Amino acid sequence: xxxxxxxxxxxxxxxxxxxxxxxxxxxxxxxxxxxxxxxxxxxxxxxxxxxxxxxxxxxxxxxxxxxxxxxxxxxxxxxxxxxxxxxxxxxxxxxxxxxxxxxxxxxxxxxxxxxxxxxxxxxxxxxxxxxxxxxxxxxxxxxxxxxxxxxxxxxxxxxxxxxxxxxxxxxxxxxxxxxxxxxxxxxxxxxxxxxxxxxxxxxxxxxxxxxxxxxxxxxxxxxxxxxxxxxxxxxxxxxxxxxxxxxxxxxxxxxxxxxxxxxxxxxxxxxxxxxxxxxxxxxxxxxxxxxxxxxxxxxxxxxxxxxxxxxxxxxxxxxxxxxxxxxxxxxxxx
Length: 334
Fold this sequence. Notes:
The structure is a single chain. The protein has helices at 7-12, 26-31, 45-57, 60-85, 101-113, 123-136, 154-160, 167-171, 188-200, 224-231, 242-253, 258-268, 274-285, 289-304, 320-333, and strands at 2-5, 19-22, 38-39, 91-95, 116-120, 143-147, 164-165, 208-211, 216-217, 220-221, 234-239, 313-316. It is α/β, with parallel strands linked by helices. It folds into two domains: 2-133, Rhodanese-like domain (Oxidized Rhodanese, domain 1, 3-Layer(aba) Sandwich); 138-333, Rossmann fold (3-Layer(aba) Sandwich), CATH 3.40.50. The strands form three sheets. Strands 1-5-4-2-3 form a five-stranded parallel beta sheet, sandwiched between helices. Strands 7-8-6-11-12 form a five-stranded parallel beta sheet, sandwiched between helices. Strands 9-10 form a two-stranded antiparallel sheet. α5 links the parallel β4 (91-95) and β5 (116-120). α3 runs antiparallel to α4 and α6 packs across α9. The longest helix has 26 residues, at 60-85. The model has no long low-confidence stretch (mean pLDDT 95).
């Protein structure tokens, strides 16, 4: 079976799929993809470039023949892997860049073998257009926005609240000067895809928990309408004892490299006193991370934190279970 699907039909079938195949080249896939896809490419990076060059500069027919040969070779190599993990009869979704030969070639082979194949019309390009339109017309407006000073446990609360959006998780960034401590960030497109994937699964009339964020987290930017709708949500200020905040932040700083530390210090240097900067660096070089975190919270983060003019509720997170109960009760009353 081979079914051609528009974006909405394709997305509606996602939950039923056993495998989602991205048939684009590894380079295209690594930059961004539909969340949950696996890369069984029709053409490798080198093959994709070679075929494209021949198509543009020499002969379309020659390019098609060479591309078909490469696709057959690559599919032959992947079939054993697919069959090992996904028995014949499984439901497989597939897409390529524009819904062309790369996905159709693999889709035809898989369908003839006996797989139930759903192919995305227009490919990844049409999916991305749908994502951007979705953000522009975002129907979700009921947000419970958790604010508060660094280390008060907002991220941990979100993980135990439902429904919620972990925007920092999608961005792989904590939203602060030391926020890149989590490692490499996704591309802007992949960040948007992850955010879309989460929002698309939620009903617009649901109250969604989310953390108050700056518009930009590291190298990625929250889509304008998403940011605007969050800004108009119900603001809840989360507080926590200083000692608990220090312990929480210390966990993230355990594996900070010297290169990362000094780069982050250079960023915040204009906003702290020279004596504080020297004390932080001295503590770090003595591997006294407890003092590093204490200095950063007390003499930088707490000083630059700007509480919004309007806060609807204040909840203390000294007891997480109690704080969560209060937040869930708030959700039921909105």
